[in-house]
Structures are given as C-alpha cells and as structure tokens.
Amino acid sequence: MEIHLSPQLAKKVYEGNGGSYYAWSPSELPMLREGNIGAAKLALQKNGFALPHYSDSSKVAYVLQGSGVVGIVLPESEEKVVAIKKGDALALSFGVVTWWYNKEETELVVLFLGDTSKAHKTGEFTDFFLTGSNGIFTGFSTEFVSRAWDLEEKDVKTLVGNQSAKGIVKLEGNINLPEPKEEHRKGMALNCEEAPLDVDIKNGGRVVVLNTKNLPLVGEVGLGADLVRLDGKAMCSPGFSCDSALQVTYIVRGSGRAQIVGPDGRRVLETTVKAGNLFIVPRFFVVSKIADSDGLEWFSIITTPNPVFTHLAGSIGAWKALSPTVLQAAFNVDPRVEQLFRSKRSADAIFFPPPN
C-alpha cells in the first residue's frame, strides 16, 4: 500500500474578527488518521480572544509567534492564567478548558499537535465551546439552563444569546481579562528557546527535548516533543524512533531537504520542506534532513512522553557499535573499506556541519 507522506500546509477552518483557526485534514495528509494524530493552528490578532473551550484530544501547544495569555482550568481546579511567548510549550490533556488572548500588535500564533485516539474523529480535533453561537448553552432549553444556574428566563436569554460570534472574537470596550501570575506558569509551560540544550553541536545544530523531567504534564498527555534548530547547510543524521513512536514535524523556520526510507530500503519521501509544512514519519522509518543556507528549525511531537532515538551515523551511531568483521560481512567489503567507513564521522554528534 502506498504511503502518502508529502508535507502539507494547514487550511483555514473558521475565522472571526479577532483571528482565525487552521487545521490539517486527514483527507490531504492520511497519516494523521492512520497515526491518530491531530494538528491545528490558532492565530489571534490584537485583542483577539479565543472563547473558552475544551477538546476531545490531548495536545502539546507550541507558541510559534508573538505573546499573549492563556487561561487553563484543569478538572476540579481553579483557573490558572499563564503568560506565554514565542518558544513556549504547554501540555494540555483532553477535557481541560482553555481560553487564549492577544493584546499585542504582533499576531499570536499557537500550534497544536496531539493524540486523537480517543477523539470523535480520528486525525482531527473536536473543540467544545462553552459560549458563542456554537456554545453548549445553545443546545439546552431555557428550562434546563435556568434550573442549573438558578436564573430567571430573561437572564438566560441574555446569557445564551448575547455572544453571537463563533470561536474567536475581538474584545472591545473596557473588558479587562485577568492578569497572568508567575506562580501559575510553574509546571504549566516551558520555553524551548531558553531551556538548557540537550544537544549543541558547533555549526551543526541544537536540540531541546520536552519530556517528563522538564514538563511533567507531558506524562499525562502521553506525548513528548522537541525543538530542533539546524544551522545553514548542516545535516541531521539519519535516525529512527526505536520505541515504536510516530514523529509529527512542523517546520517553524527556514527550508531544506528531507528524505525518509522505509522497509525494503525504499525511499518513500524525498522533498523540500519549508516554514508552515507538516509531515509525519511512520514508526521505525528512518529520516534525515539537510538545511538550506538559511537554516532549518522544526518542532515535533513524538507519540511517547520519553522518546528514544537511534542514529545511524556519528560515533553514537548504531553502525559504529558493530564489530569490524560484522560490517565487512554485512557490506561485503574488505577491511580497508570497512576502516574507511568506520573512521568517518567519528565525532559524538547527531548533526553534521556542512563539508569544507
């Protein structure tokens, strides 16, 4: 069966006067459905407000651009109000109520990647809004709402009918949303651009891994993530997830080339990737990327909270761990060629600077 892995751009799903919501469709990227993965983006203009809602899927949110505020209500907990900015990652389990707000001139753009194995639609997020023209209040009769909240009928009609927008609005007037609290941020968000580096190769690249150690909530979400920044013309070593995890990659910045190799030594993807692209690497498939001159940056989720990767090149590569005679037999070469192969890429690296 042919596997469709070509990178895709998100399509607009809906918009309001305060911003837009985009998503990737399983009909255009079938691996979303096959891998039980959802992907979407929220873009808020100045004073844009995403109405309170919850989702049927666990997600990792990553701030691609701008700064703003997110309100988070965990089950049976008080609201946490967290300041967010470019580079921040948050783990959101399904059923958590959130709202998002941008009061700055720069557009706030947030990427959502998550697990749809328990979702209503495989490969898609379904959001349930508390208010607005498609809010859950609109589905209940006046009697049910009035009895649940002990309100008079006229007040119910005002409560349910005044917010005529859907999903995203632009706040006008004197509404002052709650200010973020620093203590609320602890354990809720991690800035991947400021966190200690897990990998740092001169003229090669840098990696920050999001896992249960630096953001424990990813354990509840069941997803890990990483931010990878590849320098111009540098290469990311061919590698694969060795714990049966899918890797879902969003290109944040720059451009480059990517190749994916699957069973039977067949190259299943060779493509150019650029900012805004999303693509998926199937379980155990080997992927490698080479950045163009402007470099390449991507954010990935991995469908396990503590991912493990095997790289095939460099001193940490699996090939270097095999005995010389095993390599000679495997490649059917003499000792000279085997030694040449082994002596190259001896640095302890997963990123390789451009050749001299």
UniProtKB/TrEMBL annotation:
* Top-level taxon: Eukaryota
The record ties this protein, via InterPro entries, to:
11S_seedstore_pln, Cupin_1, RmlC-like_jellyroll, RmlC_Cupin_sf, Seed_Storage-Functional
Q: Describe the location of the Cupin type-1 domain by residue ranges.
A: 3-157, 195-339
This protein's major location comes to endoplasmic reticulum
Q: Which intervals of the chain form a coiled coil?
A: none
Q: What are the subcellular locations of this protein?
A: Endoplasmic reticulum; Protein storage vacuole
CDD domains, per this entry?
A: cupin_11S_legumin_C, cupin_11S_legumin_N
GO terms for MF: nutrient reservoir activity
Disulfide bond keyword on record:
yes
Query: What UniProt keywords are attached to this protein's entry?
Result: Disulfide bond, Endoplasmic reticulum, Seed storage protein, Storage protein, Vacuole
GO cellular component, as recorded: endoplasmic reticulum; protein storage vacuole
Keyword Nucleotidyltransferase in annotation = no
**What does the similarity note say?**
Belongs to the 11S seed storage protein (globulins) family.
Protein's UniProt name = Cupin type-1 domain-containing protein
- Protein species of origin: Psophocarpus tetragonolobus (Winged bean)
The opening ranks of the lineage are: Eukaryota, Viridiplantae, Streptophyta, Embryophyta, Tracheophyta
